[in-house]
Write a structure and sequence with these properties.
The chain has about 290 residues and is of the alpha/beta class. The protein is built from twelve helices and 13 strands. The protein starts with a strand and ends with a helix.
Length: about 290
């Protein structure tokens, strides 16, 4: 039995479908089963409720842990992501869980951990996983693309509706988008691939491109011929300061801008490709599929 956290999220939905396609028994941890819209084995629980985590891992052999938040106070990041992961690991070890597959984020490192609360929480989670004594696999994905969620629909809407395409800063920073189905395939194989045990893998698609190149290829895939304009980072930060106060999940925050400014969002090695031997969806095909 696999316990999956974060099954109702964007990436989680794809991971769940991937695991089920491989006919793996999956139990989903959700806060409200009646609203989750999930079939099969569903258990009620919350990352801030240690007792519910202990109940969730009973009879489980592998945990696939995807829960994370993008916005909130430092205390909220600590409580849900960092402490929640520590409690889940403790419960898993006590229950005899043999493997813990964890989703971190590309860019997470000891050097970046104090940049924004999100990176700090992701780093704390990684450290807890590595020090748990349970066999683990850690994934650090780049931007995850799909038609049904994530950041790509926001980009597509912007390219379609805005009179000009705003590109943050010089547009020379790089990204390496990966298709959601490919991320799901990595998680599926990690459940029982011995070669992946106790290792951390950076996940990206087959191509790394600058933001300038990305926007051109996105617009080409959509048949859009509107021009682009480079917007100073300072202006975008001022805009984010206002939009952060709006209700809902805001796609552009000051913390995200810090992360984009900090470094390229690309993998530093091909360990994942060599270890898992998956055929990944090229960027142009990702954009076509999501059109």
């Amino acid at each position: 039995m696999i316990l999956l956290t974060g099954a109702t999220g964007f990436v989680g939905g794809h991971v769940l479908r991937g695991l089920r396609a491989s006919r793996r028994p999956v139990r989903c941890l959700v806060r409200n089963p009646s609203k989750a819209g999930l079939d099969g084995d569903v258990v009620q629980g919350d990352m801030t409720d240690a007792a519910s985590l202990k109940a969730a891992v009973e009879g489980v052999e592998t945990v696939v842990h995807l829960v994370a938040i993008r916005q909130g106070s430092d205390e909220k990041f600590e409580r849900i992501m960092a402490q929640g992961t520590r409690d889940l690991l403790s419960a898993a070890k006590e229950a005899g869980v043999g493997r813990f597959v964890h989703m971190s984020a590309l860019g997470t490192s000891e050097e970046s951990k104090d940049l924004v609360p999100y990176y700090h929480a992701k780093w704390e989670m990684e450290q807890a996983v590595e020090g748990s004594g349970t066999a683990y696999v850690i994934f650090r994905p780049s931007f995850v693309f799909e038609r049904d969620g994530g950041i790509l629909p926001t980009f597509s809407k912007l390219a379609r509706l805005a009179p000009v395409t705003p590109i943050i800063g010089s547009g020379e920073r790089k990204l390496q988008p990966i298709w959601a189905g490919d991320v799901a395939a990595y998680f599926d194989k990690a459940v029982d691939l011995d070669a992946a045990t106790n290792r951390t893998f950076e996940l990206g698609g087959p191509e790394a491109v600058t933001w300038n190149e990305f926007w051109e290829r996105l617009k080409k895939a959509r048949g859009i011929k509107r021009p682009s304009i480079h917007v100073p980072v300072a202006f975008m930060k001022a805009n984010a300061l206002v939009t952060e106060r709006l209700p809902g999940n805001i796609p552009l925050t000051r913390d995200l801008l810090k992360m984009l400014e900090y470094s390229d969002n690309v993998v530093s090695n091909d360990d994942a490709v060599r270890t898992f031997q998956l055929t990944l969806v090229p960027l142009d095909e990702q954009l076509r599929r999501a059109a």
